[in-house]
Amino acid sequence: MPKWGLSMKTGKIVDWFVSEGDTIAKGDDIVDIETDKIAGTLESPVEGLVRRIIAEPGSDLPVGAVLAVVAPADVPDAEIDAVVEEARAAVESGALEEGDEPEPQLVEVGGRTISYLSLGPDEADAPVVLVHGYGGDKNSWLFVQQPLAEDGHRAIALDLPGHGASGKDVGDGSLNTLTETVTGFLDALGVGRAHLVGHSLGGAVVAAVARAAPGKVASLTLIAPAGFTPEVDAEYLRGFAAASSRRELKPLVGRLFADEALVTRQLVDDLLRYKRLDGVDKALTAVLGTLLGDGDRQAIDTPALLKDVDVPLTVVWGASDRIVPVPDGVELTRVDAGHMAHMEAPGEVLTAIRARL
To answer: Which end of the chain is more exposed for a tag (fewer CB within 10 A), N or C?
Structure first.
């Protein structure tokens, strides 16, 4: 059972895509798992023959529980049975209770406190830095950050000012302020060059970082970045900034996904809890002015930011994005998802990111 996000303790098996006797490859989709926040698809971390499926659909299992056994055909059934019994005993005994878990850290950048989570080896060259969108936080990368760390990369997800566990002072909320924060964050962590991955507002921010400090950027992966087209769901942006109740927030959050059934009560509750923190309303309002211009059109011009930026670039977009429509005339990878492609189609997003590493 994978660890998707800091709050995940258990996962519920929804549906298997493989059967006993199938041969799987690393990266194959093997099983859908439901967490307290959202359902996700587990990619196989190994290749080989599926000898036994232990976790039945509908079962709730702790992080770290064995879900299936993969082994060569010449391994005796008795050895497979022993592994299965050991796995079941570990669950029943409570031996899989969480031990020491990675904890978010804080760093001061330009007088602002920035919260971040780093996974993977510290000595890895050119880490992957993940930057969320408007109203999001580092936990939105729950299906992306851990797999990258397991690949051997250092994967760092941060909360922009005004978001998540970072300080709520966003100053003027401008793109320049957010860009300077990310650039200063890299300096504060001693990161010389990084592969930058940005979603929505975060996409525009990392594009601006590449323009301001191209020597710090090994590659860019932009996921439904703000500013590629004038059109945007301004009603969503204004509504999210103003929402103060579950009744107001839930239908807005549903617009972020192609499959609105993915929106759990916990996901909405977490967003509502964030929105009720002191200073959040002011921060979101300030940043909203950066996103929206006259006539509720997008105020950021991301293609202009990228002009003359000579770093490897990948653009990924959910084909069913209702917040920022898929632009015409842009070379991009379409995935079967809404605006939150990295949560709804993480396997395809990971493929795009890995291609730049």
So the answer is: C
Please tell me which residue, 53 or 264, carries the higher pLDDT value. 53
314-318-319-321 Cα dihedral, nearest 10 degrees: -130
Q: What is the per-residue pLDDT across 102-123, written as a single tens digit (0 to 9) for each?
A: 889 999 999 999 999 999 998 8
Q: Last residue of a domain, which of 93, 122, 144?
A: 93
Residue 6: which pLDDT band, with cuts at 50, 70 and 90?
Answer: low
| pLDDT tens, position by position, 20-51 | 999 999 888 899 898 877 778 888 888 999 99
Residue 32 domain boundaries: 10-93
Same domain, 109 and 76: no
Mark whether 59 and 135 lie in a shared domain.
no
Distance (Å, whole) CA 30 – CA 324: 31
- Residue 300's identity, in one-letter code, is I
Q: Do residues 317 and 333 make contact, with C-beta atoms less than 8 angstroms apart? A: yes
Q: Are 63 and 98 in contact (CB under 8 A)?
A: yes
Residues 180 and 46 both lie in one domain: no
CA distances from residue 226 to 17, 182, 298, 320 in whole angstroms, order as listed? 35, 17, 8, 16
SS3 of 22, please?
coil
Q: How far apart are CA 354 and CA 147, in angstroms?
A: 10
- The answer as to whether 98 is a domain residue is no
Residues whose CB falls within 8 Å of the CB of residue 100, separated by 6 or more in sequence, listed in order = none
In this structure, are 178 and 43 located in the same domain?
no
CATH at 39: 2.40.50.100
Query: Distance between CA atoms of 352 and 357, rounded to whole angstroms?
Result: 9
Closest CA to 129 of 169, 175, 99, 160: 160
**What sign does the CA torsion over 325, 288, 194, 8 have?**
negative
How many of the other CB atoms lie within 10 Å of CB of 57?
12
Measured CA distances, 26 to 29, 70, 84 (Å): 9, 12, 22
CA distance 116 to 103: 9
My answer on whether 205 and 123 are in the same domain is: yes
